[in-house]
Amino acid sequence: MSLFESVFVKLACQRCGKVHDSVVRFRSYSGRADAEYQLMEVASRRDGLRVGEVWEGNADRYCDTCYFEWSIAQATAAYEALAELIERGLVTAREKGPTVQTEPSSAQAEQSPPPLPASAINAYAEEYVTELRKQGGIMVTMPYFEELNLSVGDQPVETEEITLEVDDGWTKFLVLIDPLLSDRMAKSGWVADGCTWEDFNVSLDNDRRIIVEDMQGRRLNRDGTRGDGARVSQ
Ligand SMILES: [Zn+2]
């Protein structure tokens, strides 16, 4: 069972423009948790949805092919940005050794391998991207935490216990790397904020038909066009 209500729609991929089948996920809270609708379908009164309410939803920006390419681009940019931060002396990266759980932490610290130069990062990027292509998998999280220990100044960048406190290593790392990542993604034509979905508003019209509008107030049509029929491209 899905946690979301769904509207099946057609959307133009924001990378390649191809119109593809997609789904807008939303939560009405008043309606059935796993209800599924076609765009413009008349919603049964038994579903609990009320005319006049507006529900926030979202859908993937990209078609499957482009989403995969986004994942590759994102990983590549993440490694490049890391290399830049190392080059500038802001971040230190050390190779993770084989994990020996029994070592006391003090002994491990003494044995920590030397910091990697920026030039070493490219090899990790190539290996990672090759593996990603081989598996055809989509990674949305930042790569390299499996193979590298990072620190900002003398603070380790911990992904295990993320607190989002302003002074922890993880937050400092994000503040450093986010602008570099966004910049690289924007330059290669991707939406810069790293967001792979687009927000929509879902509601019922007066005839209880399911309608979907984008954040510019343009109503989604069944053929994937919006409002006056203009296809959205970026
Ligand atoms: Zn596409």
User: Shape, please?
Assistant: elongated
Rounded to an integer, what's the Rg over CA atoms?
22 Å
Oligomer: single chain
Task: Assign a percent range to the helix content.
Answer: 25-40%
Number of domains: 2
> Order of SSEs, N→C?
EEEEHEHHEEHEE
Quick take:
With 234 residues, the chain is an alpha+beta fold.
Which key terms come to mind for this protein?
about 230 residues, alpha+beta, 2 domains, six-stranded mixed β-sheet, three-stranded antiparallel β-sheet, binds zinc ion
Describe this structure in words.
The strands form 2 sheets. Strands 3-1-2-4-8-9 form a 6-stranded mixed β-sheet, with no helix packed on it. Helices cover 27% and strands 22% of the residues. The chain is of the alpha+beta class and 234 residues long. The two termini are 34 Å apart. The longest helix is centred in the N-terminal third of the chain and has 24 residues, at 64-87. The structure holds zinc ion.
What is the fold's blueprint, element by element?
Blueprint (H helix, E strand, L loop, with lengths): L4 E8 L6 E8 L9 E3 L15 E7 L3 H24 L3 E5 L9 H6 L10 H15 L12 E5 L2 E2 L12 H19 L9 E8 L5 E5 L20
Parallel strand pairs: 1-3
Antiparallel strand pairs: 1-2, 2-4, 4-8, 5-6, 6-7, 8-9
Helix pairs in contact: 1-3, 1-4
The chain binds zinc ion.
